[in-house]
Amino acid sequence: MKGPLFYAKILLFGEYGIIKDSKGLAIPFNAYRGALKTSKNLEGISKKSNENLYKFYNHIASLNSDVVSFNLEAFKKDLENGMYFDSSIPQGYGVGSSGALVASIYDNYADDKITVLENLTREKLLKLKEIFSLMESFFHGKSSGLDPLNSYLSLPILINSKENIEPAGIPSQKKGKGAVFLLDSEQVGETEPMVNIFMNKMKNEGFRKMISEEFALHTDACIENFLQGDVKSLFGNVKSLSKVVLKNFKPMIPDAFHKVWENGIATNDYYLKLCGSGGGGYILGFTENYKKAQESLKDYKLELVYRF
Fold it and tell me: Among 139, 229, 270, 278, which one is least packed by beta carbons within 10 Å?
């Protein structure tokens, strides 16, 4: 048995904001992927994956939901035959490792599944998101369902609000100097503690005001600029967003990167923002001159995501 490939995802804009119903833009990231495989001799990582899939199977079996049902018999049989999830997607890095796994299990075992080939109405997209949210809650306690949705469809997705999501056309990449890149913090981040910090901060009126008046405003502008290919305006808005995040989301930025973050804003060589929930994993970078950013960040591992 060898299942189809499901890719990592990058939430370009909207981390935390989408919890509070502001806009977001997620894109597939094909450099990392995962697929279900079977082996008669499970050992090491594949053995651990098989054990974790058994736990996930129990979660799926206990879902008492009207929106989805699964072929649990086939799922269990495949587990007994040595099924595991073979993935190159780093865990705890904010690029959707659990999302790809959820997408592959849905694809393989859901009854009456919504396929990528059919006409994806808003209703179908919302239904998929709801199903994936139920499934992925096993990993994070609370899930928007967006990571698996992005992985399953392998399309850029524009989140206008919780009830309004649509596939988005993003401008094709150019061979320009500008780039979006990933900066490796070389630390693993955990989603749940970070989301808890955010939820506690949301109890503060000043923080809520900042989210709606500054964070969401800059995020929405960045998304609009990006989708329209307005690179000049984009970098102005990304710089503003980077400042807001540094000032208000310090616990989500690993300590060792506070100075690196400030340096980007001061020099304009690059601007950083959170990738996923933060706390470690990848940090997302935007630069008008990738070569310059590489020189400035020569002590760190960078990965190219998109060229302007």
Answer: 229
